[in-house]
Amino acid sequence: MSFGSFDAHSGSNQSASAEINMVPLIDVMLVLLVIFLIAAPLITHSINVQLPQVNAQAIDTQQESLDVTITAEGEVFFADTLVEMSALPEFLERYQSQAQEMEVRIRADEAVNYGLVAETMSALKEAGLNKIGFVTQAKAD
């Protein structure tokens, strides 16, 4: 954008300004930053469960894992996919080729009936997924 002058003395020395106005770019970047700061916590877990609280150390694993979530209502999710208990063996067939190296992490609500957790673990074991762990929440001091 060029700026001109109405001054009579500078009539022949007019030249266009070649500077980029950075203020709009900074405004856009700040708006994007705010959007990402608000949206990031919402992306972590979309299924709401109240995890049991225990005193345990966190385990760092680098291997491939499958997250299983069991809600207080008894719904079983594999990643974000709802799976009925009757369709569980057919659903788990797709993981049989990776069963030896895959780890399963169960996130069960503390109000879930133990029978449902045991039934889910049994189906996982029958599919060859033997590395099963439970995700808990650290106990508040």
What do you see in this structure?
The chain is an alpha/beta fold and 141 residues long. 28% of the residues lie in helices and 18% in strands. The chain has helices at 23-43, 88-92, 114-126, and strands at residues 53-54, 65-70, 76-78, 81-83, 103-108, 131-134, 137-138. It has a five-stranded mixed beta sheet with strand order 4-3-2-5-6, with helices on one face. It has a two-stranded parallel ribbon with strand order 1-7. The radius of gyration is 28 Å and the shape is elongated.
Give the overall form: elongated
CATH architecture of the domain at 53-138: 2-Layer Sandwich
Helix content: 25-40%
Largest sheet: 5 strands, mixed
Beta content comes to 15-25%
User: How far is it from the N-terminal to the C-terminal residue, by CA?
Assistant: 61 Å
Strand order of the largest sheet: 4-3-2-5-6
Low-confidence stretches: none
Structural class of the helix and strand makeup? Answer: alpha/beta
Contiguous helical run count: 3
Q: What pattern of helices and strands is seen along the backbone?
A: HEEEEHEHEE
Q: Provide the CATH topology of the domain at 53-138.
A: Nucleotidyltransferase, domain 5
Task: State the CATH class of the domain at 53-138.
Answer: Alpha Beta
Number of strands: 7
Mean pLDDT across residues: 79
Rg, nearest Å: 28 Å
